[in-house]
Amino acid sequence: MYIALTGSENNKDVYIYHSFRKENGKSSSRIYKKLGKYNTLLEQFDGDRDKMMAWAREQADKETKLYKEATGKISVEFSKAACIPMNERRSFNVGYLFLQELCTQLRIDKICRTIKERHKYKYNLQAILTDLVYARILSPSSKLASYDYCKTLLEPPKYSLQDVYRSLSVIAEESDFIQSELYKNSNFLHPRNTRILYYDCTNYYFEIEEESDSKRYGKSKENRPNPIVTMGLFMDADGIPLAFDIFPGNQNEQTTLKPLESKILQDFNCSEFIYCSDSGLGSAANRRFNSLGNRAYIITHSLKKMKKEDREIALNPTQFRKVGSPKFIDLRTLDETDEEVYNTIYYKEVPVVTGNMDETLIVTYSPKYKAYQRRIRARQIERAEKIISTPGRKRKGKNQNDPMRFVKKTSVTPDGEIADKQVYDIDEEQIQKEEMYDGFYAVITNLEGDVSEIIRINKQRWEIEENFRIMKTEFEIQTRHISSGRCIWGILFDSHDCSPLQHLLSRFCAYIPCGNYRPANTSISLLFSVKVTIAFFVFTVFPSVLPLLLVFPSLFIVLTVLTSVPGNIFSTASLIIALLASG
């Protein structure tokens, strides 16, 4: 760095200039710091210009030294003879630091302080709750294994395993309060879109033979002959879980809606929304409940279960329209080999009166959906033919997609006598019955307006199934060996608590450019495992960067994602250190 005087004869300034090289290799300089006006500084040194310039050069030397200390290279010494003491941890899992920042922004500490005022316990509920969330996302397992995993974190737990088990009853009791507060606080991170709420149910089974509490025999989604509990889940329009509740396994799913929706109306201050679900949760009572106030509904409707005359009107190929066009179209005139026609959705509206409710049945037809259904059926028919040609007992399954539904059995002769041999053949009549519905889909609603918007809202229902899949696979929710009700609530609650964090994390990662590597489309646990592996190397070899990562955890996450393209882990870690060292 050097001193330069700039300005007119009577209005000069004294600057410290910094020399540097541009990207093209050419040298240049820029103003680094202003020391003051020339005349003012000259007066401070009694008009002695030499003394003033000597002082200015000293300031430039000091700034040069400070700059080199801040941006200079770091030397690390190693000893080949030195040994790491036994049982001393030198590497730590820091993938949770970004989740910790999200939990802080969700104000979980404030929620836990409010809960503590209503209960008498000495353990740190906030530490337990957040650690359970970290473990569920990064290393999903049992409570015991989660506690052991948390010992590997940079900030290990200061509570005992028994405190974890004791906290589950408090979490279960305060579940509604925690859910409502998390919803309110999440609006500070990402404005929640509650204009549309999706609802669906799933269940969890238990490896027991006797019923107890809410664990009851019922219709299992996995077709297991074990007691189950039912979980009802509301999701907002962005695919982020909103609220959940647990019900007995033998309770009709249709009756689970009102209790949970009433909580949302009261605790979440959501009173104006469109309720969307499948036909199994769209009974007349539920539709009537969601037609009150400023609420509305969009629910799938089974064409097969309609009355014959209503079904004939719905499936009549005339009076269909192309979305956005008022012109009527006869489906029989469509050239489905044309790409535009193949990818277009056609619809018709049929007014329906159910009791005192005026509803609209929207029937859609898609050539693309028709082709998909026929491809699936063709494979099922192939499987049915293989079953017929294979010797042995032919047995129909309970699944509606079982290929044996296309197999008919003939046990009598044309004369009505008992046949000596049972004959199996493909049931062409059953195939024709199913082909009648190919390409057709229906929803029932009390909304009036843009049909394309109604179709779009219904298409998003797959995201709630995706939430269930994430809970059961990536979060590895396993209740089959749990006996107490508080543990069931504890496990299901921390999985529900993790889902919004995972969605917020995915949205954050979606904006990070990193070549062809798309973190938003990968498993969050895989993303964190990459960071943890790098962090192990960084903390073992470069412990001096630890304070920086503690102060700037989000910086560490961004730098890691930016450099997490598959490659040499050592070069990746070195790049992170270089970036951190450069400020």
3D structure, described in words:
With 583 residues, the chain is an alpha+beta fold. The protein has 21 helices and 15 strands. β7, α10 and β8 form a beta-alpha-beta unit. α5 packs across α17 and α18 packs across α21. It is elongated, with a radius of gyration of 33 Å.
How is the secondary structure organized here?
Elements: E1 2-8, E2 11-21, E3 27-37, H1 38-44, H2 49-71, H3 97-105, H4 108-116, H5 125-138, H6 143-150, H7 161-173, H8 175-186, E4 196-205, E5 228-235, E6 241-248, H9 257-267, E7 274-277, H10 284-289, E8 296-300, H11 308-315, E9 320-322, E10 328-329, H12 339-342, E11 346-354, E12 357-365, H13 367-389, E13 407-412, E14 418-426, H14 428-435, E15 440-445, H15 451-459, H16 462-472, H17 485-510, H18 524-541, H19 546-551, H20 553-562, H21 569-581
Parallel strand pairs: 4-7, 7-8
Antiparallel strand pairs: 1-2, 2-3, 4-5, 5-6, 8-15, 9-10, 9-11, 11-12, 12-15, 13-14
Helix pairs in contact: 5-6, 5-17, 7-17, 8-17, 18-21
Instruction: Please report the number of helical segments.
Output: 21
Helix fraction, binned, reads 40-55%
Low-pLDDT stretches are 508-583
Rounded to the nearest angstrom, the distance between the terminal CA atoms is 19 Å
* Spatial ordering of strands, largest sheet: 6-5-4-7-8-15-12-11-9-10
Radius of gyration, Cα only, in angstroms?
A: 33 Å
- Average of pLDDT: 78
Q: What portion of residues belong to β-strands?
A: 15-25%
Structural class computed from helices and strand pairing: alpha+beta
Profile the largest sheet: 10 strands, mixed
Got a strand count? 15
**In one word, what is the shape?**
elongated
